[in-house]
Amino acid sequence: MEDVVNAVVLVTNFLVVPATAYGCQLALGALGVTLVYGVLRFSNFAHGEIMAFGAMVTILVTWLLQSWGVGFGPLPTALLALPAGMAVTAGLCLLMDRWVFRFYRRSKAPPVMLLVVSVGLMFVINGLIRFVIGPADRVFTDGTRFLLTVREFKALTGLSEGLAIKTTQTLSVVVAVVLVAALFWFLERTRTGKSMRAFSDNEDLALLSGVSPEKVVAVTWLIVGALAAVAGTLYGLDKSFKPFTFLSLLLPIFAAAIVGGLGNPLGAIVGGFVVAFSEVFLTYPYRKFLAYLGPEDWRPDGLVQFLSTDYKFAVSFVILVVVLLVKPTGVFSGKSS
Amino acid sequence: MSDFPATLSARAGGMLRAPRKSALFAAMAALICLVGVAQSWSLALAILNLCLISAIMTLGVNIQWGYAGLFNAGVMGFAALGGLAGVLVSMPPVRPAWQAGGAGVVLALAAALVTIVAAVLVHRRIRQRGYRKLAVALVVVAGCFAARALFDPAVRAIEAVDPSVTGYLGGFGLPIVFSWFVGGALAAGAAWGAGKISLGLRADYLAIATLGISEIIVAFLKYEEWLSRGVKNVFGLPRPVPYEVDLQNAVWFQEWAATLGVSQVDLSSIVVKLCYAALFALVLVVLMWLSEAALRAPWGRMMRAIRDNETAAEAMGKDVTARHLQVFVLGSAVIGIAGAMLATLDGQFTPTTYHPLRFTFLIWVMVIVGGSGNNWGAVLGGFVVWYFWVEAEPMGLWLMDFITSPLAPDNPVRSHLMESAAHMRLVVMGLVLLLVLRFAPRGLIPEERR
After folding, report:
1. What pLDDT, in 10s, does the model give residues B275-299?
2. Measured between CB atoms, does A292 come within 8 Å of chain B?
3. Contact across the interface for B208 and A134, Cβ inside 8 Å
């Protein structure tokens, strides 16, 4: 019996906890992509860089706060800096829209043109980030590292397997839940949120009903910028901040958004978790897990790993392919055209 | 996609502007000569060679974007497959590795193939809906385990063979020029797969699917050491042109250098680069001729019709998805050829150098700047953008030095700016892309009205 409990703890420690935190980060990223898609109707390739930009601003403010000697007790100082990061990133998104996207929106350019334009912005933002903070790896988390350490858990339960929960993982979940709740409240209950959904469902009808397109677009960018900053910061806190990684995050984020159905916020959240859990579960070596469950003194020969961790993106890609083949509108039926 | 910008403006632009085209190409040649005079001729030729390869890659992307409006975000992957072709064709086979694990790898690949065939057969045979998916899934999972059981020990055996020098299967030991064809074929195959899945759906899906497939291709090349040596890189690909050392040892060459009055080292490097340039220019001319012929032919007219109004073309009985797949495969094959040529020029295969900003998005800047839909424009874009990409570094450093000259040399702001100057070229390229799209969407050489 104890073996079974140990096996469960092992899986929780190495799979469930990290995948939940990662899923929250992906869901926040995918929400941004899906909102842009729903309202502005194009896939924003610059989204990864917007996330990186938000994380960068947060890091800079964190350093400033730290240099003043301001801390947040057991929590990372970055949490204090986060509102500033969200505000600056939302401002960046508004500027991007004003200077770049608005022209194409008004001239009714096909979506693929907006996509190419977003690639140009990706270049610019990526270059700016490297210019300001450099391409190096940055660890900017402080405060208490663990909410629950392996030793504490073992002492508490007397099991041979430990369970550790990092502060940053808990933070990812808490912040994501709060933000998503606020977002859904906004979309479902407020007048602006309702007009956003109406605009996303049927632009012409919404315009006829007196919805102001400029306001809807501006609010969307504000939300997208703020969400991207949070997603980037949480990812950076949990792992580390490196400008290059955000370009490769683009694929899992798009996969998550497409799985849930592009344009569907609820789908983006579910998609984020689907991608995160599949990625973690398919690249984990199950050797020790099976050893606990199998007979006494028995161990599998190999690592029992479905896929090497080097092929993490392949998982999101395969999910993407399956969804495109089976149900191109996504599980929650977003837009297909 | 009735208002594809390039055509819209091409109609307004009207007639063909031959003088403008010649003037722009002459200016480009002058710029390259400027490097020859100001820096060195060897550098100028090195830039020219990469310009030629960039031009071919741009031609490939232009076939997809300019002819059909397809956004390929996976140029990097197709170019990397071309590089792999360079290794597989030209490197000598590693006999001990083949003995150790060749049979195992071949058997594993055969098992994978059998699995696919079996899955297709099962899918066709079983009619009941619920059972069909279950049966296919069972076949695929069983096939995966069988293939892995054969594959893993074989790979371990291959990678254990003298890992510091080989540790991979090697290639076929053929002349490297063949790899240009093979690279095109590999890229075409990958493009067919990606296109089959994502074409016919939204335009964005192709972009995302190609982005994914290119990441996977590069990851595959990095980690499958039995095939490509992975991050240990493959050095010393055989050359299609003579080696500098051989030239310097040849008597006729020494005499020639003496009569010209230049050092043998300089002359040999220039001669080798000229040989490469001639080969690359030949490929570019052939591809250019083919593309122009295709555009003039009824096929080109059909592609433009589809690009400008898919619905109307479909109503006229054109199979839009099939034509898109065709043009996507053709364009990717051209990119694959360019990728193989790049590996040939480098003389090595280093999977870590494939970075999306350099290989995918920079090529996009080239196409847009040059003029989407016009092959001449694409070629010119490849030249111009590569030239400034390379020369931006000295220019950027000089500019930063000039701007920060009022500050003391050890000022932290100044040193940070000087260090980061290299990153500014990304910003500049992005700005160029945005400005061209906004204010001159037809590019340097607009699409001709036909």
Report:
1. 999 999 999 999 999 999 998 899 9
2. no
3. no
